[in-house]
Amino acid sequence: MQEASTSLNLPPSLLIAVGGNAIHPEGIKGTPEEQMTVAAKAAEMLLPILELEQELIITHGNGPGVGKTILRQVLARHRVTPMSLDICVANTQGVTAYLLMQAFENALRNAGNPRHAIGLVTQVEVDPNDLAFTRPSKPIGYFYSQAEARSLEIEFGWTMAEDAGRGWRQVVPSPEPRHICDISLIEALASRGTIVIAGGGGGIPVVRDTRGIRHGIEAVIDKDLTSQHMANILGIEHMMILTSVSQVALNYGTQEERKLGEVSLSEIKQYQREGHFAAGSMGPKVEAAIRFMERGGKRVIIGHLEESLAALTGKAGTHIVLDS
Ligand code: ADP
Ligand code: MG
Q1: Ligand 1, atom 9: nearest CA belongs to which residue?
Q2: What is the pLDDT of residue 5?
Q3: Does residue 258 form part of some domain?
Q4: pTM score, whole prediction
Q5: Does 268 reside within a domain?
């Protein structure tokens, strides 16, 4: 392994959350070749970090992937029984972990590095009384016409909502992650130097009944919040959220847009109150960053997947740090 971790003064343990869009871009058709190529590109971009001698946990999103899984079963519903949402998340979690672990190990072997990467099936417990279950709010999957939306509501019992004039989408509850199942195994593997891929798609949502028995539940947990929770529980002090923009911006997408370099916790909280971070995209990342810092974190880096090493070493990205 490289000895860079000391010379670059890098953290001894790190959790990286990779965006669903970064590993399955909206624009691709999703052929096996495309998916392998995208995973290989992600591995190539992350290789300098995969090679560093540190505890490394990778979480990832699954938005575009799970959207396709759901559409597939809508289209095939008269021939094949559709799966529940927890099973859909388990599907995309498994597929993405497979692609990433293969791509990571191939990139490492190509560099002559014997390090292992393993994907774990991760259940995440949520509270069945979470208020999110009374008001589904997270749009998932594809857009439908109003007529299609009505029939899906009747057939599947889905809740559908109009999305900013773009059509109708399924909306699902997005409860808070309460407990990462098997977190001790994630820690055990990471501490022996294995790169652990876990918590994909925010984790498979489950609830535990009074007898301690777990059941899957129809929900989608925010992957940024699951990543934050996992990192805090493990005592990891550095978290990096990699997405499709290189920096967090104020007045995003306007003439007054201003990109943030280093920003303190109290500054970012102020910007959050002012409404700079869109719900469902940058909003959950900033919320996860704030929670992480308030529960023992030292630094959150939000940046572009293609600039991961530069971001980690302070040359790119937005860095959220404690108030001095
Ligand atoms: P991921 O798949 O990585 O979770 P998201 O699409 O959920 O990606 O979030 C990243 C997106 O957030 C960016 O592509 C950008 O369009 C959007 N975004 C919204 N508000 C902001 C902001 N204030 N600064 C930067 N990006 C923003
Ligand atoms: Mg997202």
Answers
A1: 281
A2: 47
A3: no
A4: 0.95
A5: no
In a domain, 220, yes or no: yes
Q: Which residue has the tokens 């990778």?
A: 58
96, 12, 111: which is closest to 58 by C-alpha?
96
Going from the Cα of 276 to the center of ligand 2, the distance in angstroms, rounded, reads 16
- Name the band, by pLDDT with cuts 50, 70 and 90, for residue 272: very high
* Number of domains the chain contains: 1
Residues contacting ligand 1 via CB (< 6 Å): 19-22, 61, 63, 243-245, 248-249, 252, 276-278, 281-282
Question: For residue 100, what is the domain's CATH number?
Answer: 3.40.1160.10
> 29: pLDDT confidence band, cut at 50, 70 and 90?
confident
* Alpha-helix runs per DSSP H in the chain: 4-7, 20-23, 32-50, 63-75, 85-110, 146-156, 183-191, 223-233, 265-273, 282-294, 308-312
Enclosing domain of residue 150: 2-37+61-241+274-313
Q: How far is the CA of 285 from the centre of ligand 1 (A)?
A: 8
Asked whether the beta carbons of 170 and 158 are under 8 A apart, the reply is yes
**Residue 143 φ then ψ, to 5°:** -95, 145
Q: Of the ranges 65-69, 223-227, 264-268, which one carries the lowest mean pLDDT score? A: 65-69
